[in-house]
Structure formats: structure tokens, C-alpha cells
Amino acid sequence: MNFEPNGLPTLIGSLPLKDHKEAVELILKYTPEIPLWPQLPVFEEERLLSQFSEGLPGLVKKANKVFFDTSSPDFEGELLSFFEDYLAVTEGGKPLDGSRFSFSERTSRGFDTFLEMVKGLSPPPFALKGQITGPFTMLTGLKDQDGKLIYFHPMLKDAVIKAVTLKACFQVVKMKEIGTRVILFLDEPSLSGFGSSAMVGITRDEVLSDLKAVVSEVKSKGALCGIHVCANTDWSLVLDAGIDILSFDAYGFFEKFILYKEKIVGFLQKGGVVAWGLVPTLNPDDLKKETIDSLFERWKEQNRILGLDEEFIRKRALITPSCGTGLLTIELAEKALSLTKELSERIRAT
User: Fold this and answer.
1) Is the bond preceding residue 73 a cis peptide, omega within 30 degrees?
2) What is the pTM of this model?
3) Based on CB atoms within 10 Å of each CB, which residue in 57, 116, 330, 338 is the most buried?
4) Can you tell me the distance from the alpha carbon of 276 to that of 244, in angstroms, rounded to the nearest whole number?
């Protein structure tokens, strides 16, 4: 799919608001070309793991702790029911909408509000963006009753990957009804820990296979698929996953990212897009001190180091905050959105 965003701005999921309509209005104000549906982490059900773990077999909450209880006498039955529902959708023709792989009323408020507000826009946006917590982060963030990572439970691991895949495809199907191109990001903050002592026993080939499984299905539904990591990681792993868009924290981790220069250049030359997270959101002090001029100079310097024609880089670029803004104050979050919009405008004007 030929996709040249030419430096347009978009966002990374979360906002520090309590009202979904207000959140969408803010998104449309600052990123009308590629708006995304908002996640509001002030609500427990819209946080990194909770929003996309609904419907998984054996998942329980006790004393504010969420885990898989594989010791429950009901666990095997729940697991069987899950895979029966999966087959009903993938082979039996049951629609995703209304299945356990769609959003429930409890978790759908941002998504539903977004769809309602963008479907009447004329002309339609250049693209719509959705996001989901990626398989690696889900598998290393969720545990069983004994504290064991779900990554090491083969049947539950398979269930999580299948659920993430269908929940991502559900978003794509619903957004494509608006009549414009769709982008779906896998948010994978835990990839920053891949290779650490806490993840001994997890191989590169396994992680890559899991990512590819989700990416390929999202793309098969006609969407562009990206991976966002808000820290450093093995970027060759991300680039080998078959993605269309690589999203990274260009403010804080460019020096690590550029170590993979040859592979990044090859990705861009083959039609890939890089989402440059140039507006800092992880450290409020950084956000307070930065200006359009300072961020634009950072963009120019990073382009120089990458060593490709600047117009070519711009055509294959999205401009974003470095990560979501859900943990910032409302005032700082709006500054991040404003800087993202203005930086994009400055870059596109050159």
C-alpha cells in the first residue's frame, strides 16, 4: 500500500481527560487529518492492559489485582469456550461485532464516541488511527495466580495472541466503514525490556513470530499496521515484523535508534513510514522548555544524521508526541498536542 503522509501529525492514544467527547474534540482540533480514538486512563477499564484483556479465559480480579487463575475448576471450560468462540468468528462466519473480541459497553466509550464524531466529517480525514496493546506487552504484563508470566503458558499465550489479533481487526473493520484509510498501531512498551534478565527464556524468533501473526492479519483487513515503542529496543526486531509504520521516541532515543541506520534506510526506501515522536511527553520538564524552533532544529539535525534527502524523509514521515499524554496535566497535554500540530506545519512548509 503506497502511503505518503508527508509529515502529517497524529497522536499516541491516551489523554488526561474525563470526558470522551471533549477528548475527541481536542484530537480533531490538533490532528484533524489523522485523528485517533482516545483512551482515558482516568478510567481503570481504559488502561494499557485492562482495555484489551476483556473476554480472556480465566482472568479474575481480586483485591485490585488482575490475574489468570489457572487453578480454578472452571478454567478448562473457559479456555474451551474461548477457542470455540474464536473458531466461530474465524471459520464459522460469526461477526466480530458483538463477539467477545469486540469492545464491550464498558470499554468502548472512546471508540464509539470517536466513530460517531468522525463519520459525518466532509471531506473525510486522510486516515483514521486506532491502537491496541501489542502481544508482547500483554504476554509479559499479565500473570497467573503464582506470578508466572502468561508468556510461559502455551495455551493462554495462544489465546492472548488470538484475542489481540481479533480485537485489532475489529477496530479496523469498524473504522473502514467511515470510508477512508485506516492505521492500527500495536503499542509495545515492554519491548524495551526484551533481552533483559527478567525475560530470560524468551527468544527473538518467538517474539517476531507473535508480532508477525498480529501484523499480517491487520494488514489482511486492508489497514496499515505500525508498532510504537516509547523507549529503546532491538529496532531490527520491530523492522522485521512486516510493519508499514515504525513509531519511536525521537526526542529521547534517537541516538539509540540511529544505530540501526542501514536497516532504517532500507525500510524507508521500500515504502516504510517512520513516526517521529519529537514532542516530549515522558518528562514534563522537557515539554515545558521546548519550543517549535528547538524541536524543528532537532528534526533537521536528525535528518542530517540519517543522511537521506530531506524531502524524501518528510514524505515518509508522521509527526507525533513521543508517547501518550495520559499522565500529564491537561495544560501540558494540550501543549504537547499544539506543538505536534505546529511542528508538523513547519516541517511541511519546508
Assistant:
1) no
2) 0.96
3) 57
4) 14
Distance CA 148, CA 71 (A): 13
Distance between CA atoms of 330 and 275, rounded to whole angstroms?
24
Average pLDDT over residues 333-345: 98
Cβ-proximal residues to 99 (8 Å cutoff; 6+ apart), any chain: 85, 88, 89, 166
- Cβ(128)–Cβ(178) below 8 Å: yes
- CATH code assigned at 251: 3.20.20.210
Q: Decide if 315 contacts 4 (C-beta within 8 A).
A: yes
Examine the pLDDT at 1 and tell me if it is beyond 70: no
Q: Which domain holds residue 122?
A: 8-349
Is residue 2 situated within a structural domain?
Answer: no
Q: How far apart are the first and last CA of the chain?
A: 26
| Residue at 43: amino acid letter | F
Alpha-carbon distance of 91 to 239, in angstroms, equals: 31
Residue-averaged pLDDT of the chain: 96
